[in-house]
Each structure stands twice: as C-alpha cells, then as structure tokens.
Amino acid sequence: MSDLLYHLNADDEITSVNEEWLAFAQANDEDACLPPQVLGRSLWEFIDDLETQHIYRQLHGRVRTRGKPVQVSFRCDAPERRRLLELRISAGAEQGLIYRVRTVRHQDRQPVPLLDPHLPRSERFVTMCGWCKRVAAPERGWLEVEDAVSALSLFAEPRPPQLTHGICDGCSRSLQQALTDDPVYPVLGRL
Ligand SMILES: [Zn+2]
C-alpha cells in the first residue's frame, strides 16, 4: 500500500489529504486513529485525550523550530486486524506540517467485539492506550486487548463496555524521553 499523506497549515488545520488516505479512512470507518472527513478541520478535533494532544503539540513545536522530522510507530487496530503504523511528521511550507503514514506490518485475528464501534455498549468504561492499544486492567496493568477481554471477564457480558482513550505509562515515558533526545523514533506497541 502507498503512503497516506496529509498536510496541516500553521494553525494545525488539515488542508489536503491524498487518495490513499481517503481510501484507507473509508475502508476503516471504525478506526479512531485515522478519521475520515477531516478536510478543513483542526487536527485537535480528533484527539480527545488532553495528554495525547499535549504530546502532539510538542512534536509539532519540535518539527517547526528545528525543521527536522520526527517519527513514531504506533498501533492502529481494527476489530479483525492488528496494525503497526509509522508516522513521520516533517516541516512543510509556511510553518505547515506534512504527516506521512505507512503500514509497517499487520496481522489478521479473530474479530474483537470491544473494538467494533457499531455494537451497543454497556454503562461500564475501560481505558485503551491510543498508541499501543493496550487496555487498562485494574491490578494487572496494561494488557493486549485479547488478554484484557479475558482478565476483565468481558466475554461474560452481553454488551461490551465503552472505550475511552488515554496513554499508558510506558508510551508516555517513551514519548517524553524521545522529545528530549535526537532523533525521535519511539516504537509504541509491538507486533
Ligand atoms: Zn501505550
């Protein structure tokens, strides 16, 4: 698959996306990490978690002041597929930014209902790390989604819980460290 590309202006509004981006977003409408219908909107509308927003703002600041790209790999899973993506943010014209995303590798799996946005949800909430896609399990730490479903006994429930996105300790540490080092190439999430 070709690289997905989009451009941000100096105010972090999305000014253009390529055909590959549209095709990917349409084929993966369940996928919160690469939302469709982005043109003309601010990137920040798509990132709810404030800590994650703060990290992206730091990455942007770094690219804009140094003029050098940053790169980070993260998981962007679908119910039936694990995916490791690589994001490279580089400087564009007039303080704009260029986001380039490529798939490093992917693996098919048994579909995970917890990740299916079309299913009705219970009142319960679980937190998923937006970068490595692990799920917080009380007293067990952060687990791969299949392990979390088992640890939290989610099989037993008729409806999956609601998902909120945050950032786990490991990804937070890796990103903070990467922001102070050179070059910035953290890999968040294994595959
Ligand atoms: Zn994480």
Note down, in words, how this protein is organized.
The protein has 191 residues and is α+β, with helices and mostly antiparallel strands. The protein has one domain (4-180): Beta-Lactamase. It is built from four helices and nine strands, in the order E-E-H-H-E-E-E-E-E-E-H-E-H. It has helices at 19-27, 50-66, 145-151, 169-180; strands spanning 4-8, 14-17, 70-75, 81-91, 97-108, 125-129, 135-137, 141-143, 162-166. The strands form three sheets. Strands 2-1-5-4-3 form a five-stranded antiparallel β-sheet. A two-stranded parallel ribbon has the order 6-9. A two-stranded antiparallel sheet has the order 7-8. A hairpin with a 5-residue loop joins strand 4 (81-91) and strand 5. The radius of gyration is 17 Å and the shape is globular. The two termini are 18 Å apart. The model has no long low-confidence stretch (mean pLDDT 88). The structure holds zinc ion. Zinc ion binds at residues 129, 131-132, 134, 168, 170-171, 188. Zinc ion (ZN) binds at residues 129, 131-132, 134, 168, 170-171, 188.
Unreliable spans are none
**Per the principal axes of the C-alpha atoms, what is the gross shape?**
globular
Give the name of the CATH architecture: 2-Layer Sandwich
What small ligands are held by the chains?
A: zinc ion
Spatial order of the strands forming the largest sheet: 2-1-5-4-3
Main sheet overview:
5 strands, antiparallel
Number of helices: 4
CATH level 1 class label: Alpha Beta
> Radius of gyration, rounded?
17 Å
Oligomer status? single chain
Tally of strands: 9
**Gap from first CA to last CA:** 18 Å
**Helical residue percent band:** 10-25%
